[in-house]
Amino acid sequence: MRTYLIAACLLALWLTLVSWQTATVPEKLSDYGFFTGDPVRQQPAAGVVPYTLNTPLFSDYAEKLRFIKLPPGQSVAYNDTAVLHFPVGTTLIKTFYYPHDFRHPAKGRRLLETRLLVHQPDGWKALVYVWNPEQTDALLEVAGDTKTVQYVDARGTARQLAYGIPNLNQCKGCHNRQEVLTPIGPSVRQLNGDLAYAGAEKKENQLRHWQRTGMLTDLPPLADCPKTPVWDQPETGSLNDRARAWLDINCAHCHNPRGPAMTSGLNLSIGETNSTALGILKTPVAAGRGSGGHAFDIVPGKPEASILIYRLYSTDPGDRMPELGRKTVHTESLELLRAWIKAME
To answer: Is the keyword Signal assigned to this protein (predicted)?
Structure first.
């Protein structure tokens, strides 16, 4: 009982602190003016630019709409080794939604939340806005929420999910780099792909579009720019490259030398070349029951003996990886990773 009361008091204190910190933040997403017309259409206003990632983070099969708004007159310098360094005043916007029927997008969709990363003078600030049932606006939420979602998946199966919306403190669980909040996805290698922009006759490479519109400087020839393959499109990269791309975006924001899971000694960043750091025949540091009784993170040729596969398959909150943003099993990526481990010598 005493432990419960202490936890409740700490939670109340944290909520009070967060409420004070967000006192001057707009209560409604519409107050920012990011979108025009019917909010559910997510039609960006002037200065708000859509973008996509070649291989995005898995979030219980939720679809995402991504946008960026740079401060007027500002641009981003080319950098092919890390996430781009966006100027103060930048806002990254990401809306999570589920189509009513994944086979027929024209049947409509349900917007669940819009997350913002706002670059302020003292660093990045995370904000979460939850969409109302009428789909007319989203309201600021600091304590998190759970929404029951029903949809028909790509195979025609009716699904129901208790979709978790994170509280502001949980955002730090993925976006921290040595206690500093930072974006995860928008890097040169992830943006090096085509996107259909409104009013354009054909798709355009995102890096070239950003350069043409003054958003990106010092862009070399596209042939010299790194490019993340699309994890489920074999024509875009080898089995190894696609598996590494999936692990990089889904796991490496924690499992890297500066991430929240640095003490594990596991580095799943796409550029890691040390096989032990990558997990091959590496014993876990402190996995506990999360090892599933297995001895190594990755056992070449034996996916079912690998802790990596066990934790990605588990839905137990104490075992599953990633810890946040996933309650279901990403069946398709597990097939990719099993094939990757089987192919190892």
So the answer is: yes
